[in-house]
Predict the structure.
Amino acid sequence: MSDSIKYLLDEARLPRSWYNIVADLPTPPPPFLNPETQKPVVTDDLIDLFPETVIEQEFATERDIEIPGPVRDIYRQWRPSPLHRARRLEKVLDTPAKIYFKYEGVSPTGSHKPNTSVAQAFYHKEGGVKRLATETGAGQWGSSAAFAGSLFGLEVDIYMIRASYEQKPYRRALMETYGARCVPSPSNETVVGRGMLAKKADHRGSLGLAMSEAVEVARRRDDTGYALGSVMNHVVLHQTVVGVEALAQMEMAGDYPDIVIGCTGGGANFAGIAFPFIGEELRGGRKTRIIGVEPAACPSLSRGKFAYDYGDAGHLLPLMKMHTLGSNFQPPGFHSAGLRYHGMAPLVSHVMDLGLMEARSYHQSKIFEAGILFARTEGILPAPEANHAIRGAIDEALRCRTEGRSEVILFNLCGHGHFDMHAYIDHAEGKLRDIDYDEGELAKSLATLPMEQVAAA
Amino acid sequence: MSDSIKYLLDEARLPRSWYNIVADLPTPPPPFLNPETQKPVVTDDLIDLFPETVIEQEFATERDIEIPGPVRDIYRQWRPSPLHRARRLEKVLDTPAKIYFKYEGVSPTGSHKPNTSVAQAFYHKEGGVKRLATETGAGQWGSSAAFAGSLFGLEVDIYMIRASYEQKPYRRALMETYGARCVPSPSNETVVGRGMLAKKADHRGSLGLAMSEAVEVARRRDDTGYALGSVMNHVVLHQTVVGVEALAQMEMAGDYPDIVIGCTGGGANFAGIAFPFIGEELRGGRKTRIIGVEPAACPSLSRGKFAYDYGDAGHLLPLMKMHTLGSNFQPPGFHSAGLRYHGMAPLVSHVMDLGLMEARSYHQSKIFEAGILFARTEGILPAPEANHAIRGAIDEALRCRTEGRSEVILFNLCGHGHFDMHAYIDHAEGKLRDIDYDEGELAKSLATLPMEQVAAA
C-alpha cells in the first residue's frame, strides 16, 4: 500500500541475531574496572551476579550475537513490533518531513524492557539459578523482569524504590500478578539497606540504592542471579533487536532515516534503535543524525562528565566510564522516573565521545505537550519517557517545515503511558513544574567522582 | 512457520466490509419499538440521535456493509489485530486442544471499543454534528469515544457513572487527555439527572442512567449526536471486523475453530468474533459451537427473560426485545464493570433464541484465577471482562484433555487489564468475593417489564 500506516514483519522475519556495535566502532570502549582493585574487570568479578553467557556478552567483540531459540519463541509473542508512519501527526504539523516510529508498547508489559528481561531470564535459568534479584524505579523494568521470570519458572525478588512502592500500587500489582515479590527499598534484607535505614529510618529510596540491594542479595545467595534493566553492555545488546527490525521495516517503507531519535535514561532503548543505524554508517553506509533526548532535570549526556563512576549507591557494580552526574547526584522530582539515573550506558557514552551522536534536553512541560499532541493525532498515549523522543521528533519536523526539507525521521516510541496517568493528571491540573537540578549539588556530586582520570565532557 | 505464535495480516488485507448477520438468519430479529407508541421504530424516531448512515445500519439486511475509507485509515493504526496461538497455555494445561485468541488489546485504548467508536465518530462528523454525547461505566468505552472524537475533530461529552468518576481517576484522565469532557452522572445538566439527584442527592449512578443523560443531551441539541458502546445493531456490526479478520487468520493457521468464545456484557465484543463464524455455518459451512460467557452476578443470557425492555433508565431509547434482567435490575458490585448491563444486544439475544449459541456464567474468583494463569503463561495481563472468555476457553481445553479430543478453540481477548489493577489487587488481598445477585430483586425487576408479550427465556 502506498499510503501504509504500519509496516509489519512476519514472525519468520524476527532477527536471528542482536547487533554488537563494538565490532564496528573505531576504538573499543574503555574497560570496566573492579571497584576495589581499579583493575579491568575479569569474568571472575562478575560470576556471582551473572551467568557465563551474559558475562561473555559484556566482553563480546563479534558483530552478530545469536538470539537463542527459546528467547525468540517468547519474542514472537509481540515481535517484530510494528513500525508506524505518523501520517496524521505529519499533517497537523504541516511538515514535509516523514515521521516514522517504532512502537514497543505492544509488549505484554507495555514497553521495550522485555527485550532484555526475557533474554536475561533465559540465560539465568540456563545458568542454574532459581531466583532473580533486581531493582525497579518506575516499575517498567520490574514488571518486565517479573513477566520474564514467570515464563521461565524463576522466582523474582524486586527491590522497589520505597517512594514508588507506596505511590505506584498498580505497577506493584502487575509485578505481583506475574508472581514476583516486591520489597520496598531500602529494606532490612541487605547490609546496604539496613545501613541506610540506620542513618535515615524514613529513607525514600533511590535507583542506585535498590540496585545495590539486589546485587548484594545475588552475590550472597548461590541460587540467585542479578538482572538489570539498562546501562550494561548485554542489556544494550538485547535492545538492538528494535533497530535491526527497524532497518528491515524502513526498507519495506522504501525510506531510510536521515535522523534517528530515542529518549535516554540508562541508554538501552535509545541504543536499541540507534546502534544498528550507526553500524550501517560505520560500515560505509548512509550517514544518519542520531539524537538522544534527555530530561533537563537529569541531563547526563548534556551536562555530565565522561568519567569512571559507580553504577550503584553501594559501589558493588564495576566502575564504568560514562557520562555521569555523579553517583551521589539526586535529580529533582519529575515524571519520567525511567530516566532518573545519574549515568549513561558506557557504550552510549563512548559513542557520544566518538562524535557519532548528539544530545539535547527538555523540561517536562514541553515533552508532555508533545505527548498530548501525539495522543490526539496518532491515538497512542505515550509513556512520559517516550514523550522526550516525540518532542525531539516534532521539533525536527518543525525545523524541516521552516527549512522546506523533506527529511525522514525515525524515533523509538518505547512504551505506552497507561500506567502513568498520574503524570497526565498533574499536567492537566497545572501541577507539572519545570524543575531544574541544583547546579551547586551537581558540582558537589561531580567533585566526588571516584577516579583521578576524570576527563572533561 | 509451523510453530507460529501469531498470525498477522498485512494492512492491505484489512476487511473492506463489516458482516451483517441479519442477511443469513433464518428469521429476522424482532423490530425495535417506539417506547411511547409501542409501534416499530422508524427513521424519524432516531434522527435526533444518530446520523442517517447509522440508522440505515440499524435496519440493514444486506450481508456486507462497506467500511468507509477514513474509518479503514484509522483502523490501520492497529488493525488487523493479531491472532495468537496460546502454545504456552496449552502446555501448562496439558491439553490436546489448540487454543487461539484474537488480541484486541493492541488498540490505542487497549480494548475492542475503538472498532465502533471510530466508525460512529466518522458517521457523526459526516452527519454534521460538532459534538458527541455518550456514557461510560468502566471507562473503556468512554476513552475509546474520546480517542475517536479527537481524530475527527469532534467534542466529546462523557456522562460517567459517578462511582467510576470518583474511583477511576486514571480512566478519566485518559479521556481528558484525548480532549473529552467527563461529567459525573447523575448530573445537573439533564432533566433525567436532576430528577435522580432530587430523589437521592448522593446517587452513585448507573449505566442505564448515564445513557439517558447522553441521549437527552443529544436529542435536545442539534449540534450533538449520541454514541454508544454496545447493544444496538450498528455497534454489533462494527465489531464484526474482529471475526472477519479471525476467519482469514484461522485459514493462515490452517485450522478452523470447533468452538468460539467471547465474554458478554452488552454483547458487542462477543458478537464481533462470533457472528462471522455463525454466518459461515448458516451459509452451509462448518458448524461451530458458540459460547457466550457472562458474570454470575449479571447473567442476562443465562437467567434473563427474552422480552421487550428499555435499554436505558430514562426510557428514551427504543424498546428492544432482548435477554434482560429488567432495566431496574441493579447487579451487585463486581470487578468487570464492562459487563454490568441488565440486557443483551437484541441481535445476540435473537441468535440465542434461535439456538445458535449457548451461554454460561462464572463467579469472579474463577475468572481471575484464569486470568492470572493466562498472564503467567502468555504474558498478557487481561482485562477482567476478558477473563470470562479465558475461563471458558480453559474449561473447554480441560474437557478436551479429559475426553482426549484435540478440538480447536478460539476466543476473543477483548482488552488488556493495565487500567484494572485495582481488581487484581483485590484478588491478591483476598478481597474479591463471589457475590450473587438477589433472586427476589431479580423477580421484582422482571415483574416490571414494560410489555405484555413477555416470553419465558
Observations:
- The domain at 114-228 of chain B is CATH 3.40.50.1100 (Rossmann fold).
- Chain B is about 40% helix and 15% strand.
- Chain B touches chain A through 48 residues (CB under 8 Å).
